[in-house]
């Protein structure tokens, strides 16, 4: 179990919660501590309640837990919202001079630190720095050397000039000194620092970086929470490699822009969330039947319809597997951690081009908003390999023409993969269409050709099934009677939940599945176990349905659809009760 | 201008299934001629077609081509052009494709002003679905789904383009082969989004906007003293909406294509075998 500290800053949207939280998270990361962050946020620009939460430990942290040790509360509501996570001894930092905070009651057993954040900030150079004063206070409470804040303050404010940076450093120190002087309290925390060098990034950024590493040159998208960060990451960076981000008028256009770029030979992608996927669905079949390589990323959020746009859910699995009319060959890949968001993106591009097929990269809000630390080697660029599949150059075109010298973009090959020429390749001109077509890409309704083309497209999937690794990630006790299966972002919470369970003598075998289609055959694993539990963040158990269909056996299900991701400690209780152990009173 | 490429090089060996007399024959022929006469080669040309009778054009032409989803031809064409600005990109579609299901894309394609041409085969009817009102059908045009007419004014495509900031607006007539070809050539040569609304009569389902009607009503701007670079004059002609003009109505000679403004000049197709050089810097940004 990591010796962890759980910290949060909360207030209204517009209070600078995110950037303050990020400064603290970065400081911890630079000090060689692992960090796992989460956000509570609402779909509004100002007001409401929003929080940035940091869990930190010297050992790796993979999840959030239901416990909050230090809370900077800019509003009274922040305390109310976190009451369940606060505990005896939790420290609440607030500004009692703030008119709305004058009557704040600190719950019994907790420590209230009333610090005039705004006044102190004014002393240091401006009221705007009150959050940074609070960070200084937090450093004192957590016994975290304040120098560690300096680098992240420089990173955050460097472009505003050195004077501003210095003011902020001063503001932090003023906060720290105020608490040291005013409160004679022995806080039980001591945030050890190490020499480790970590990078701190979220799942959307990892997807964006994966795309750049994989040679993605064209991105089209329409802003939507929680996928926008992918587009924002790529904007300004992809240009350095000769690429372009295009903000489309809608998702209908986005996927078609990406399709056009892919036809022109660019590695191309789009990312969106559920409502955008709905619109893009129109074009899935076109991408698949024209055999255009494309990565379509769905950063899932809570649905249906507008649902809870800033909340977590893994509700789009069926959409990714089955969305669209007709039968659409596709691959569905779901990264299980922030680092895997990077690697699975790289892989998605290779799969897309090798098999000339749409690849759905299914991530979710929990991954998108989680900033997590990794050693930089976790993203070793030397490990990135790019495979483009059967791209035909001018001097090879002759091998792929018919008796009339016409290039055959849908030639029915043995492995199902046809040759591909980029426009501009002499002799390679061809059309393709969303109508059923012949090997030349021209419409047909001839039965034989129809069957040949359908089979050819299916054969690509069979080839991929045979030639690629569609394996799972395994954790825990391999011989356990209890098999836990999950997919996507739940991996971290389950792994840490297992540590809680282990302390209580409960062993489980955990299989985390990043490949949804094609996917590993889990028949043997399920047969071997006495009990199988499928865990996912949705109500219907979409992955459990798929597993049951695969193995023709019932599985147990743990589902969460509150809009909040699984937490390690909570999940441990759920699993324990599912395996028949009594829950604690 | 290359003399090596003939317009028949842009022709596939697939025979059109359009109704005999369909305007689309003339429209397509003019497009092929214009492509050849502006020095383009099928291997360096990308044609995108929408859905409907007009959408079949990709099949009958020879070039790199994609026949896509109804209404989305323009985004595909823009994607192609941005990913490889060296290609000649031509998008063709019908009035339903461009001004109804794809109206949103039309407005934004006009705004983006990517260097490509867009030929709308406007027959003021949905032909392939056998005769329903289109966005350019007249207010009182009786069809199977609008027995007393749509009772809505037709979309004025030229006004739509003008209001979206078009840099090239023209109208042609499929039957006037020479002028149609000239106008499409000008659209191709225009530095930006060259929009040509081409009257392309449907001989089967539209008995109002017929060849005879257009022949009788068309006013060739070449025969008027019209200066297409004069925005106010263009605006007046377009907004009057009572004449069927033919020719280039508006052209912004200072137009700079979006991809040029964005510094895009090279094909994006080539990528290294691994991560780009110095890619670990991307990781280190996250320190």
Structure characteristics:
heterodimer; A: 585 residues; alpha/beta; six-stranded mixed beta sheet; 21 strands; B: 287 residues; eight-stranded mixed beta sheet; 11 helices; 32% helix
How would you explain this protein's 3D organization?
The complex is a heterodimer of chains A (585) and B (287). With 585 residues, chain A is an alpha/beta fold. Chain A has 18 helices and 21 strands. Chain A has a 7-stranded mixed β-sheet with strand order 9-8-10-11-13-12-19, sandwiched between helices. Chain A has a 6-stranded mixed β-sheet with strand order 2-3-1-4-5-6. In chain A, strand 4 (68-73), helix 2 (76-81) and strand 5 (86-94) form a beta-alpha-beta unit. In chain A, helix 7 (203-213) packs across helix 8 and helix 9 runs parallel beside helix 10 (274-289). The longest helix of chain A has 21 residues, at 162-182. The radius of gyration of chain A is 26 Å and the shape is globular. The model of chain A has no long low-confidence stretch (mean pLDDT 95). Chain B is of the alpha/beta class and 287 residues long. Chain B has helices at residues 23-37, 57-60, 73-83, 95-99, 103-112, 157-163, 177-189, 211-217, 231-240, 258-261, 280-284; strands spanning 45-49, 64-67, 88-94, 116-122, 168-173, 193-199, 218-220, 244-251. Chain B has an 8-stranded mixed β-sheet, with helices on both faces. In chain B, helix 2 (57-60) links the parallel strand 1 and strand 2. In chain B, helix 1 crosses helix 7 (177-189). Chain B is globular, with a radius of gyration of 20 Å. Chain B starts with 22 loop residues before the first helix and ends with a helix. The model of chain B has no long low-confidence stretch (mean pLDDT 95). Chains A and B meet through strand 7, helix 7, strand 8, helix 9 and helix 10 of A and strand 1, strand 2, helix 3, helix 5 and helix 11 of B. Strand 15 (431-433) of chain A pairs parallel with strand 2 of chain B, so a sheet runs across the interface.
């Amino acid at each position: 179990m990591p010796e962890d500290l759980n910290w949060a800053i909360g207030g209204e949207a517009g209070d600078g919660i995110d950037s303050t939280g990020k400064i603290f998270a970065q400081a911890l990361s630079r000090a060689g501590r692992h960090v796992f962050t989460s956000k509570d946020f609402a779909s509004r620009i100002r007001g409401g309640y929003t929080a940035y939460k940091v869990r930190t430990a010297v050992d790796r942290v993979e999840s959030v837990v239901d416990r909050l040790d230090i809370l900077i509360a800019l509003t009274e509501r922040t305390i109310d919202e976190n009451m369940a996570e606060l505990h005896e001894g939790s420290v609440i930092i607030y500004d009692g001079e703030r008119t709305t905070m004058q009557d704040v009651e600190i719950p019994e057993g907790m420590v209230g630190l009333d610090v005039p954040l705004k006044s102190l900030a004014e002393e240091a150079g401006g009221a705007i720095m009150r959050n940074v004063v609070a960070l200084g206070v937090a450093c004192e409470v957590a016994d975290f050397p304040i120098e560690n804040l300096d680098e992240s303050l420089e990173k955050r404010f460097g472009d505003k000039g050195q004077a501003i940076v210095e003011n902020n450093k001063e503001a932090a120190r003023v906060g720290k000194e105020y608490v040291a002087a005013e409160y004679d309290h022995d806080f039980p925390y001591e945030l050890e620092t190490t020499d480790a060098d970590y990078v701190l990034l979220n799942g959307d950024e990892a997807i964006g970086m994966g795309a750049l590493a994989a040679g993605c040159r064209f991105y089209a998208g329409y802003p939507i929470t929680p996928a926008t960060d992918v587009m924002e990451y790529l904007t300004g960076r992809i240009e350095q490699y000769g690429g372009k981000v295009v903000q489309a008028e809608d998702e209908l256009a986005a996927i078609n822009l990406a399709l056009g770029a892919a036809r022109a030979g660019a590695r191309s992608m789009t990312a969106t969330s559920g409502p955008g996927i709905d619109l893009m669905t129109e074009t899935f079949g076109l991408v698949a039947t024209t055999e255009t390589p494309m990565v379509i990323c769905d950063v899932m959020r809570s649905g249906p319809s507008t649902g809870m746009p800033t909340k977590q859910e893994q509700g789009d699995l069926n959409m990714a597997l089955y969305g669209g009319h007709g039968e659409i060959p596709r691959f569905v890949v779901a990264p299980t951690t922030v680092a895997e968001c990077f690697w699975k993106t790289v892989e998605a591009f290779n799969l897309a081009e090798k098999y000339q097929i749409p690849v759905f990269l299914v991530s979710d809000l929990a991954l998108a908003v989680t900033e997590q630390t990794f050693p930089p080697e976790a993203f070793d660029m030397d490990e990135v390999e790019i495979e483009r599949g059967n791209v035909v150059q001018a001097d090879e075109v002759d091998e792929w023409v018919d008796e009339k010298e016409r290039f055959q973009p849908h030639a029915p090959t043995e492995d199902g993969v046809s040759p591909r020429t980029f426009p501009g390749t002499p002799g390679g001109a061809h059309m393709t269409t969303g109508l059923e077509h012949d090997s030349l890409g021209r419409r047909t309704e001839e039965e034989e050709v129809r069957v040949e083309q359908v089979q050819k497209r299916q054969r690509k999937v069979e080839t991929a099934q045979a030639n690629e690794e569609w394996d799972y990630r395994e954790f825990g006790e391999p011989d356990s009677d209890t098999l836990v299966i999950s997919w996507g972002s739940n991996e971290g919470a389950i792994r840490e939940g297992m540590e809680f369970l282990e302390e209580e003598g409960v062993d489980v075998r955990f299989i985390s599945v990043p490949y949804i289609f094609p996917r590993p055959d889990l028949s043997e694993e399920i047969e071997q176990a006495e009990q199988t539990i499928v865990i996912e963040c949705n109500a219907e158990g979409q992955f459990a349905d798929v597993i049951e269909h695969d193995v023709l056996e019932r599985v147990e299900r743990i589902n969460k659809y509150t809009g909040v991701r699984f937490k390690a400690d909570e999940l441990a209780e759920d699993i324990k009760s599912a395996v028949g152990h009594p829950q604690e009173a | 201008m290359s003399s090596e490429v003939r317009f028949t090089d842009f022709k596939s060996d697939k025979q059109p299934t359009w109704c005999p007399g369909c305007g689309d024959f003339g429209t397509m022929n003019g497009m092929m001629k214009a492509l050849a006469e502006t020095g383009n080669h099928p291997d360096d040309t990308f044609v995108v077609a929408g859905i409907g009778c007009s959408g079949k054009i990709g099949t009958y032409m020879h070039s790199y081509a994609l026949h896509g989803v109804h209404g989305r031809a323009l985004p595909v064409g823009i994607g192609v052009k941005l990913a490889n600005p060296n290609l000649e990109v031509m998008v063709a579609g019908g009035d339903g494709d461009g001004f109804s299901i794809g109206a949103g894309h039309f407005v934004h394609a006009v705004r983006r002003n990517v260097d490509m041409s867009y030929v709308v085969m406007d027959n003021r009817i949905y032909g392939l679905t056998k005769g329903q009102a289109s966005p350019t059908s007249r207010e009182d045009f009786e069809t199977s789904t609008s027995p007393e007419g749509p009772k809505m004014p037709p979309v004025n495509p030229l006004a739509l383009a003008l209001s979206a900031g078009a840099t090239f607006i023209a109208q042609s007539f499929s039957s006037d082969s020479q002028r149609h070809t000239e106008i499409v050539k000008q659209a191709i040569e225009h530095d930006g989004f060259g929009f040509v609304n081409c009257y392309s009569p449907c001989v089967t389902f539209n008995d109002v906007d017929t060849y005879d009607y257009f022949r009788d009503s068309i006013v060739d701007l070449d025969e008027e003293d019209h200066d297409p670079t004069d925005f106010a004059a263009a605006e007046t002609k377009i907004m009057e909406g009572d004449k069927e003009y033919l020719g280039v109505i508006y052209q912004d000679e200072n137009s700079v294509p979006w991809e040029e403004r964005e510094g895009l000049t090279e094909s994006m197709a080539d990528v290294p075998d691994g991560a780009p050089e110095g890619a670990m810097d991307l990781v280190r940004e996250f320190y």
